[in-house]
Design brief:
Layout (H helix, E strand, L loop, with lengths): L3 E4 L6 H11 L3 E5 L11 E5 L6 H9 L5 E3 L3 H9 L3 E3 L5 E2 L4 H16 L12 H20 L1
Parallel strand pairs: 1-2, 1-4, 2-3, 4-5
Antiparallel strand pairs: 5-6
Helix pairs in contact: 1-5, 3-4
Length: about 150
């Protein structure tokens, strides 16, 4: 049975994940270092890890398995989840796959270097309503695809 793992500290689509997971009867883990209200759903488990840079990432990477789903904007975590055989979605609905992770990691590293050099000072565009809609469609598509395998 597939499970959903949410890197929940800064995830803007937690409510959407819970709604879709309940509809499909899927166990979901909201992993954070605190400050998130527990869900009333018995399918949702709040996992509070110790404070630390990669504590939530480490917990997810240690527990996620083949054909589980990770929801994260963290590229190194996405790479670890893909390595474990999981599917990965960004909160904007963009999938990260085995075929795309190399380019995504390279772009992340380039952008980090450019920011450190002062060449880029802005961040990503703000999360928009269309991102939420795209995420819901992408999550539904991934769940159905896993169910067919």
């Amino acid at each position: 049975m597939l499970e959903i793992y949410v890197d929940a500290d800064a995830c803007p689509v937690k409510d959407e994940v819970i709604r879709v997971a309940e509809r499909h009867g899927l166990k979901t883990y909201l992993v954070c270092d605190g400050g998130i209200r527990p869900s009333a759903s018995p399918l949702v488990q709040l996992v509070v890890v110790s404070q630390g840079t990669d504590a939530a990432d480490d917990w997810i990477a240690e527990h996620i398995g083949k054909n589980d789903i990770a929801i994260t904007a963290d590229i190194p975590l996405a790479a670890r989840c893909i390595e474990a055989g999981a599917r990965v979605l960004r909160p904007n609905g963009e999938p990260i796959t085995e075929d795309t992770i190399g380019m995504v990691l390279a772009t992340r590293n380039l952008m980090t270097d450019l920011r450190e050099a002062g060449q880029i000072t802005g961040g990503p565009p703000p999360f928009a309503k269309k991102d939420r809609s795209r995420f819901l469609n992408a999550l539904e598509t991934v769940i159905q695809a896993i169910g067919r395998t």
